Amino acid sequence: MSASEPVARVLIDSALPQLDRLFDYAVPERLDAVAVPGVRVKVPLRSAGRIAEGYLVERAATSEAKGELARLEEVVSEARVLAPEVRALTRRLADRAAGSANDLIRLAVPRRQVRVEKAWLAAGPAAPIALPQTVHPSGYGTGLTDAVARGARIALHGVPRLVQAGDVWIGHWAATLAALAVSTLANGRSAILVVPDYRDQEQLEAALAALVPAGHVQRMDARQSNPDRYRAFLACLEGAPRIVVGNRSAVYAPVQHLGLIALWDDGDPLHAEPLSPGVHARDAALVRQEQSGCALVVAGHTRSTEVQRLVELGWFEAHEPERHAAPRVIPTAEQDDGGERMAAVARIPSSAWRIARDALEHGPVLVQVARPGNSAAAARRGEPVAVTVDAGRTAEDLGRAFPRTRVIVADGERPVQRVDSRPALVIATRGAEPIAEGGYRAVLLLDGPRMLSRESLRVAEDCLRWWSNAVALAAEGATTVLVGVGGAPARALVTWRQELLAAAELEDRRRLRFPPAVRTATVTSDLPTVRQVLHELDDLQHVDALEPEPVEEGRYRAVVRFDYGVGAAVAERLRAAVIRNATGRRSVAREGGSRPRARLQVRLDGPEAFG
DNA sequence: AGCACGCCGACT
DNA sequence: GTCGGCGTGCTC
Fold it and tell me: Is A541 exposed, middle or buried (0-12, 13-18, 19+ CB in 10 A)?
C-alpha cells in the first residue's frame, strides 16, 4: 500500500441513501502510511471546506471516477475500527434489506471515545489468554459439541430445567450455550452469544463465570456507558479469541476467527432491531454464519416458524436433548365443578387451586398472567374478558384465596430477578417471571385465553413461547396447570413437542402466503408514489402487492409479498426507488402549483407488515 | 443535507 | 446589459 495504490475508497458516514457507496480519494504522501483499511477518515465532499467523516474501506491502484480526485483530508486515528468482515456483513445485510450499510455500521461501530481509544492504542495488544478445556453441555451427549466444532447450523431444543452455576440458579439453556462457547474458545476461536434481554444475559454471564476467568468474556450491550461500550468494542478488535455476550447488536461484534454464533429464544421480539433498516438479529446471524463459516446455534424452548422453515429446507439440523423432556403439564377448563370456595374467590379452577395449595407447602408457586392493559382494550372491543385484570388485582384475589401466604408481584414496573426457595405465591406477567431457587413447585398459566385473544399473526407461537419459558422455571417433577386453553398450542405444550406447532403454523402461512413462508416489504408514501413503486415491481414473478391503505394524513402503505428467490431483485428495485426519491425533484409542477415531494419509506421483513 | 449551477424577472 | 431568485442536480 503505497505509490502503487494511490487511491483510497471511502464510505462516507451519512444517512443519505444516495451517498451509501464508495467514493475515491487521492492519498497524499503524508498520509500514505496511515491510510489503511478500517480507519476513520475525513474527506472533502462536493467542495473544499465541506468536510465529511467516513471509513477508509480499501486502497486501490486506479479509480473509475471521472475528473481529478479530491485528496484525503485526514486520518482520524490509526485504530482500524471497521473490520473487513463487519464491512462485508453490513453491506450484504443492507442490500438484502434495501437499506444503507451506513445505518448498520452505526449499530456495529460505537461512537468514538477519544480518551478510551488513546488509552487502548497506548496499551498495545493484551497478553494472550490461556485457552480453557472443552466442556460438553449436559443432556446432549458429545454430538452437539462436535457439530459446533465442525461449523454446523443447529436448531437446538432447550432442556426445561434449572441448574446451578456456582451458587445461583440459571436456566439449563444458559449452561448449554456457555459450554458451547467455552468449547469454541478451547479450539482457539471466538464465540458470540446473543440474548434478548438483560435477565437472560445475567444467566449466561453466571454460567460463563463458573467455567472461565472473567477476562475471557466480553459484555457488549446497550446498557453500557459509551466509554465501556467502546472499550469492549476495541477489545474485540485485538484478534485474540474471546466470548462476547450481549443483546441483538452484539451479533456485529468485530471478533476475528469466529467459531460460533448462538442466539437464545429467537422468537423474542427484542431480537428485532427497530432502527432502520430493521435487520433481525437472526438474519444478521444467518448471513454472518454464511460469510464466516462459523457454527450457528439457534436455541429455544420453542421453535420459531422462521427456524422451522430452515429446518425443513435442510439449512438447519435439529438437535433434541438425549432424553425427551416431559414436564408435567395439565390442561384445565376455566371453570370446573370442584366447588372450592377459595378457588372461586381467586377465579381459578379448583383443581388448579388445590395443586397450588399443595405445592405451597414445599416452596414457591408461579402464577403467570398476561400483561396489564390487554383486558381493558378487549373490553372496549366488546370481547369477553377472561379471568384476571392485571398482576396487582390477581395478587389481591389470590392473597385472599391463600391466606397467610407470602405474595410476590413481578412485572414491568416491579421487576424481581430472583426469589428464594421458601413458600410464596409469585405472580408475574409473562416474560417477567423471576427465577426461583431450586425451581417453582408448581406453575399456573392463568391467562392463556386472554393471551391467545390478541390479534396477531404470531399469537399461537408467542403464547407457546411464553408458556414454555415459564414451564422451564419449574422444579423437577413439579406440575404446570394450563388454564382454559385447548387446541394445537396446548397440545404442543403438554406433549413438549413445540416443533409440531411450528410446523403446523408454517403450513398455514404457506397456504395464506404470510411470512415467513414469503418475505414482505412495506412501501409507505403518498398514494401516487406508492402506486408508482408497486408498478415498478409488476414484471417480477412471485411478487404480489396488497391494495395500499391509508395510515395517516395523506400517507398510504402497501404490503408487498415475494418469494425468497426474487428477494434480491425486489430489494434492488425498492432501493433504487428510495434513492430516486431522495435525489429527484423536490416538488412536481401541478396545475399552477407544486406540492412537496412525499417521502418514500421502504421496509423489508418488518413486523408491521402483518402484525 | 448542503452547496453550486442555471435560467427568468427588476435593477444601477 | 446583469444581479439574484429559487428550482434542480450532485457529491470521488
Answer: exposed
Nucleotides in chain C near protein beta carbons (<7 Å): 7-12
The Å distance, CA of A53 to C1' of C9, is 22
Protein-proximal positions, strand B, CB < 7 A: 1-4
Is residue A90 a contact partner of residue A210, using CB atoms and an 8 Å limit?
A: no
pTM of the entire predicted model: 0.95
Q: How far is the CA of A585 from the C1' of B6 (A)?
A: 15
With CA atoms as reference, report the closest residue to A522 among A603, A578, A456.
A603
As a whole number of angstroms, the distance between CA A536 and CA A518 comes to: 19
A374 has a pLDDT exceeding 90: no
d(CA A328, CA A610): 34
* 3-class SS letters over A293-362: CCEEEEEECCCCHHHHHHHHCCCCEEECCCCCCCCEEEEECCCCCCCCHHHHHHCCCHHHHHHHHHHCCC
DSSP A285: H
pLDDT of residue A48: 73
**CB under 8 Å to A382, separation ≥6 — which residues?**
none
Q: Residues A200-255: pLDDT tens digits? A: 999 999 999 999 999 999 999 989 999 999 999 999 999 999 999 999 999 999 99
Retrieve residue A59's grid coordinates: 486502497
What integer is the mean pLDDT of A577-598?
66
In angstroms, how far apart are the furthest CA atoms of chain A?
90
Interatomic CA distance for residues A362 and A292, integer angstroms: 50
> Cβ(A297)–Cβ(A154) under 8 Å?
yes
pLDDT at A109 over 80: yes
Q: What's the CA A98/C1' C11 distance, rounded, in angstroms? A: 21
pLDDT digits (tens, 9 = 90+) for A142-168: 999 999 999 999 999 999 999 999 999
What's the CA gap between A93 and A95, in Å, rounded?
5
CB under 7 Å from strand C: A 16, 18-19, 23-26, 43-47, 63, 65, 67, 69-70, 583-587, 589, 594
| Burial environment of residue A77 by CB neighbours within 10 A (0 to 12, 13 to 18, 19 or more) | middle
Residue A585 CA, nucleotide B9 C1', distance (Å)? 23
**Rounded Cα gap, residues A79 and A34, in angstroms:** 10
